[in-house]
Amino acid sequence: MTAGKRRARYIARVMDAAAVLRTFVVRFARTSAGQIRGTVEQVRTGRRELIQTMEDIGRVIAAMVLRTEEDTMSFKGKHALVTGGSRGIGRGIAVKLAESGARVAIHYYANQAAAKETLERVRKHGADGFLVQADVSRMEDVQRMFGEVRQAFGTLDIFVANARPEAAKFYQKPMDISLEAWDHAMDSQAKAFLVGVREAVPIMSQGGRILAITYAPGGQKGTWQPWVAMGSAKAALESLVRYFAVTLAPHGITVNSVSPGLTDDSVLNSFPQAAVDAARSWHASGWTPMGRMGTPADIGNVVALLCSPDAGWITGQLIHADGGASLVDTHLPLEMQRG
After folding, report:
1. Would strands 79-82 and 103-108 be described as parallel, antiparallel, or unpaired?
2. Superfamily of domain 69-327
3. Mean pLDDT of 43-70
4. Which of 319, 257, 334, 331 minimizes the C-alpha distance to 288?
5. 3-state helix, strand, coil in the chain (%, to 5)
């Protein structure tokens, strides 16, 4: 192992049971409180996991090494479309599906460079895919996107609706928001999902999986005032998930939604650094029982679970993938709750 001069950086090489040498890069730094914050990255695949203790390093590397060939190819021969797949949570989902053997259509709106990077990571896993550009707030673009998927893949097994416009397009308080901003939020979420599912189902067979990525608290609470349009749009999206779940159940197609908590490398990172640091400290202090925010890989793992054959009896459900944050009572100080 070799260490860097500033932030610690180590190279670890491990021989697995099949005598394949696997290389990992471990990066970490100590916070002012003496805590560890860093990542373990597998060089060949680009898969990255968060670490918060020295013990995490061995645990994460062992978990990556022990992943069997059968596990990593469970979606072999499957075709997936991930909207908003160029970065953040969408990238985490696309990479996980590729790691499991799926061919992935990666949708993006404007950031083609980021989408190309995601495609490169997909290909590192021995999978393949292609890029598709579309503005999901325009229904003609949504229909064209599915036309390209149909032409490239012929069939579709997994549709993940994750795309969301940049906050500047809709981030206005209830008394200030323009009807244009309101419509943009609604069109990009509920209407895009309505049209997208209708386009996906004709090329899906029994065992198909449809998932919507939401943020449930935004539609259930009212304190995040500038989120009113997106919170309302996500609430409508979640309602559509339930209606489509009933409609498509006789066809053997499941429809579910996943609600991540605050996630590193996602919408959170578009806010000022002071807000990002405050959010991390807030969750580390106990407002997320697992002591940290989620990562795109965490959400990719949940989506993969719901796309597996074993999840065929789960439909119409909202899954909170938030490390337990949704279980915390916000009415009481944490000190009282801990006893």
Report:
1. parallel
2. NAD(P)-binding Rossmann-like Domain (3.40.50.720)
3. 77
4. 334
5. 45, 20, 35
The per-residue DSSP string of 150-214 comes to HHHHS--SEEEE-----GGGT---TTT--HHHHHHHHIIIIIHHHHHHHHHGGG--TT-EEEEE-
Neighbour tally for 90: CB within 10 Å? 29
Distance between terminal CA atoms of the chain? 43
Q: How confident is the model at residue 208 (pLDDT cuts 50, 70, 90)?
A: very high
pTM: 0.80
Tens digits of residue pLDDT in 278-301: 888 888 888 888 888 899 999 999
Q: Are 193 and 212 in contact (CB under 8 A)?
A: yes
Beta-strand pair 254-260/209-213: parallel
Write down how long the chain is.
Answer: 339
Contact 258/303 with Cβ under 8 angstroms?
yes
Report d(CA 316, CA 319) in Å as an integer. Answer: 10
The DSSP secondary structure of 85-112, one letter per residue, reads TTSHHHHHHHHHHHHTT-EEEEEESS-H
